[in-house]
Write a structure and sequence with these properties.
Order of helices and strands of chain A: EHEEHEEHEHHHHEHEHEEHHEE
Number of helices of chain B: 10
Radius of gyration of chain A: 22 Å
Distance between the termini of chain B: 31 Å
Shape of chain B: globular
Strand order of the largest sheet of chain A: 6-7-8-3-9-10-12-11
Number of strands of chain B: 12
Strand content of chain B: 15-25%
Oligomer: heterodimer
Helix content of chain A: 25-40%
Shape of chain A: globular
Largest sheet of chain B: 8 strands, mixed
Radius of gyration of chain B: 20 Å
Largest interface: A-B, 42 and 52 residues
Largest sheet of chain A: 8 strands, mixed
Structural class of chain A: alpha/beta
Strand content of chain A: 15-25%
Structural class of chain B: alpha/beta
Distance between the termini of chain A: 33 Å
Order of helices and strands of chain B: EEEHEEHEHHHEHEHEEHHHEE
């Protein structure tokens, strides 16, 4: 059994609404609490790529920010290498960031345009006071650039971000995270702004780096197709909760939760013969506001299989499926009626 | 079938201080009534430039260099802006721009913004216009009360529906859709695609569907037109490109291989090395040659013509050429 790197348990992040002018003069009732992440539990193993899948508003990015400790959780536990990181002070968080680094979605916005690549990579070293002189830091910069195959490294160090393609920028962004020798990379939609032709190249590079350095990734995306290729395990989030979790192949070949099934059916496949058909999606309406979460199973108003029991509290918890069913080992779902659904 | 649109040898270049960017460089294209033509390629291949050129509004500093755009037989390039507004734009050809749903003015209601579009082109009494707006909101599956809502009160999918309703307002026969679902979640994307298919049948529309996502084209387009560096490299029926036979041009082949498949797990996804060329000084011969692993001497010298490889299926590649 692999060792656990990150242990998340009952993690919650509630955002209190700002008081608006209208409320302060008493003409409007107070806003509601936004439950962006509402009791989420998962483990990320050492050397594992863990995918967090969901639509906008599912809380996947907020979960990533909590793990990064860019946000302070409302409740719950995050253990990193056995150490509780939810109560770290400012200095503690700074130390923690050496071990947990982030790759952002937009490689165009995540780099200072006035910095040369050398400066982009040197900045984290200066912040964390690593390397006494530039020569010492330069060695680390070259090593990081070579790790992401930006060679010759010396030449790229002198360039500005605008001189690089989107793919190359994402390589630099990866190098910038590697320079501090982290154990976990949180990658929030790292390829969604990159051209399809280069997406695979960046994912392949990230996978090579991960295998070479034995890193763990928290890969946050809405794209199931890349998740299947890239991740070991997947957790599907809906409205602040994990509704299904398991090995990537099990989730996609045997989705158990109706929401996962709808997500999978919505993905376009490059095959002929579908132009004339209207896709029947087993889901109703739109995702509700996280300020107004439905009772019982929070998916029930959109679920075509829901019955009376689904709208009643308590909410279904993540439950492991019996391995003898052939639906996978360590495959969890949060659906009361999962065994009575029409199989897609 | 009736030919709605006939683009002949179109060249549209952006005249910048560094030189002319040859964004559209010799394109021949037809659109038949009732057809959905898919336009694919990487960013910077000229998909959007072609779309806005067909609408007779190339973005500055773009100018037509040569060629014709025949709309129902009439060349629209020499027309005055006034004539284009009166007869062509939004009347015959409408466009849903990329990211249009995020370009709605935050300070006006949806109804007011739709009214504006209507008033630019037609004089309609207010009551009648409001009735019309409600009617069109209904067609795209939105309740009439959306009229009084502001953009921030709507979800992405709802905003995109409102933008589509606005494009249909003046009953165009051709709608150019530029990445209409790119910023949306996958379930909302599937719903918008379903909606577009229904509207197409209901209003006898023809679509030019622009996206970088080949998988999405497979679901919507009758014919697929693949652009690379301002030119068409392959054009053919959906059943050829996505069927057993597969694409004929190495670029399309590589693009398809780079598309991740949900139900087919691969150990290593393929990708295309390099980036599309600088169109101020594009490579000699076939413009894909610097990135093509099957290029040979001729590819570096001569431009391959579009040649028929199967009935109705054309590719511009010396590998398939008979000449």
């Amino acid at each position: 059994m692999a060792e656990v790197l990150v242990h998340v348990e009952g993690l919650k992040k509630y955002f209190e609404p700002h008081q608006t002018l209208m409320q302060s003069i008493g003409s409007n009732k107070a806003g509601k609490v936004i439950k962006a992440v509402d009791s989420v539990s998962f483990d990320i193993m050492k050397g594992e790529i863990f995918g967090l899948i969901g639509e906008s508003g599912s809380g996947k990015t907020t979960t990533g920010k909590l793990v990064m400790r860019l946000l302070k959780p409302t409740a719950g536990l995050i253990q990193f290498d056995g150490e509780d990181v939810t109560k770290l002070d400012k200095e503690g968080v700074k130390e923690y960031r050496k071990k947990v680094q982030m790759i952002f979605q937009d490689p165009y916005a995540s780099m200072n345009p006035r910095f040369k690549i050398r400066d982009v990579l040197e900045e984290p070293l200066i912040i964390h006071k690593i390397g006494a002189a530039f020569e010492e830091r330069k060695k680390l910069i070259v090593k990081a650039l070579e790790e992401v195959k930006m060679m010759p490294a010396e030449e790229f160090m002198g360039r500005y971000p605008h001189m690089l393609s989107g793919g190359q920028r994402q390589r630099v962004a990866t190098a910038r995270t590697l320079i501090l020798n982290p154990k976990l990379l949180v990658a929030d939609e790292p390829v969604s702004m990159i051209d399809l032709s280069t997406r695979a190249e960046i994912l392949a590079m990230m996978k090579d780096v991960q295998e070479h350095l034995g890193l763990s990734y928290l890969y946050i995306t809405h794209d199931l197709s890349t998740a299947r290729y890239f991740t070991d395990r997947i957790a599907v989030m809906y409205l602040g909760r994990i509704v299904e979790m398991g090995k990537a192949d099990d989730i996609i070949d045997h989705p158990l939760h109706p929401y996962t099934q709808a997500l999978i059916q919505a993905v376009p496949e490059p095959e002929s013969g579908k132009v004339e058909t209207i896709k029947e999606l087993p889901i109703f309406g739109e995702i509700p506001s996280p300020a107004n979460i439905p009772s019982g199973c929070r998916f029930h108003p959109r679920c075509p299989y829901s019955a009376a029991e689904c709208s009643v509290d308590p909410e279904p918890e993540l439950t492991a499926v019996d391995a003898s069913t052939g639906l996978g080992v360590d495959h969890f779902h949060a659906c009361k009626r999962w065994d009575r659904l029409k199989k897609s | 079938m009736e030919k709605l649109l006939d683009v002949q040898n179109l060249q549209m270049h952006y005249f910048t201080s560094k030189g002319a960017v040859r964004a559209i460089d010799g394109i021949d294209l037809t659109l038949m009534a009732g057809e959905t033509l898919g336009l694919v390629g990487e960013s910077g291949c000229g998909k959007t430039s072609l779309g806005s050129s067909i609408l007779r509004m190339p973005s500055p500093p773009g100018r037509y260099v040569s060629g014709k755009i025949l709309v129902e037989g009439r060349d629209i390039i020499p027309l005055s802006e006034k004539e284009v507004r009166k007869d062509i734009r939004w009347q015959k050809i409408a466009m849903v721009f990329q990211g249009a749903m995020n370009c709605l003015t935050p300070v006006y209601t949806i109804g007011k913004q739709m009214m504006e579009t209507l008033n630019v082109h037609k004089e309609v009494p207010k009551a009648e216009a409001e009735a019309l707006i409600k009617e069109y909101l209904g067609y795209v599956g939105l309740p009439a009360e959306v009229m009084t809502r502001y953009p921030h009160e709507l979800s992405g999918g709802m905003k995109q529906r409102a933008v589509i309703a606005t494009a249909l307002f003046l009953r165009p026969s051709v709608v150019i859709l530029d990445e209409p679902t790119t910023a949306l979640d996958v379930i909302v994307q599937a719903e918008i695609i379903n909606l577009l298919k229904k509207l197409k049948a209901q209003f006898n529309l023809s679509f030019i569907f622009i996206t970088h996502d080949l998988a999405l084209e497979a679901e919507v387009a009758d014919r697929i037109c693949v652009m690379y560096a301002g030119r068409i490299v392959e054009i053919g029926p959906n059943a050829d490109i996505f069927g057993k036979q597969g694409p004929a041009h190495p670029y399309t082949q590589r693009l398809l291989a780079a598309t991740p498949r949900l139900f087919k797990k691969v150990e290593k996804l393929q990708f295309i090395l390099g980036t599309p060329p600088d169109l101020i000084d594009p490579p000699k011969g076939c413009r894909f040659n610097p990135r093509c692993d099957r290029a040979f001497a001729r590819c570096h010298e001569e431009v391959p013509p579009l040649e028929e490889v199967e009935p109705g299926h054309f590719a511009a590649c010396w590998l398939n050429s008979h000449s």
